[in-house]
Amino acid sequence: MRELKPEFLISDVAGLREVFRTPNPESLSQKKCIDHLDKHARTFIARSPFLCLGTQALEGLADVTPRGDPEGFVKVLDARTLVIPERPGNNRIDSLINIVANPNVGLIFLVPGFDETLRVNGTAQVTTDPDIMALMEVQERLPRAAIVVSVKEVFLHCAKAFRRSKLWEPASQQDRSEMPSLSKMVLDQSTGAPEDAEEMAKLDAQLEARYRETMY
């Protein structure tokens, strides 16, 4: 790990406020935080096919995972409760393990084409309640479990990050073929990828087949 110059490190709030001025308490950035899912938050969630879920292990290690499904896959149960399906995956279940140890979570909802995002912070529990999971059935398949979030903070985030990154602009789309396949990169990082291109192609095809077989 690269060592940072200690004279430039900021280690307390006072130091941060020397760099970033204290916001006006009457500004929208300060007033926008609410403690429930209002009509605008509910509509945003109903449109969203993708979110990032932030969790933290008991020992403090943070983690963020992507979650995606058809738009509206996250269900709002009431003004202070939402539920996220846990679909079949690789069974690492990092987020679920973190939640049962430390229930604090943070969510960012994205809508394709929207430069704004919706942020939700709260606490979570994991359930297999069939009544809750039935709400998230897709192609006659139920999720393995559900993450139920008790909402503490809700606010809309401005468009600056997406406008700076030009994320949705067609000209910003990159050619996926310029990097190796997922299978090859993971193998390079672990046991080593095969040198034979035909064998590597078979492994890539197997991964695509698993995607088709285990999406739901």
UniProtKB/TrEMBL annotation:
Name the SUPFAM superfamilies for this protein: FMN-binding split barrel (SSF50475)
- Record's signal peptide: none
What Gene3D superfamilies does the database record attribute to this sequence? Electron Transport, Fmn-binding Protein, Chain A (2.30.110.10)
Q: Which InterPro entries match?
A: Pyridox_Oxase_FMN-dep, Pyridox_Oxase_N, Split_barrel_FMN-bd
Ranges where the Pyridoxamine 5'-phosphate oxidase N-terminal domain occurs: 37-158
Query: What PANTHER family is this protein classified in?
Result: FAD-BINDING, PUTATIVE (AFU_ORTHOLOGUE AFUA_6G07600)-RELATED
- Name of the protein in its database record: Pyridoxamine 5'-phosphate oxidase N-terminal domain-containing protein
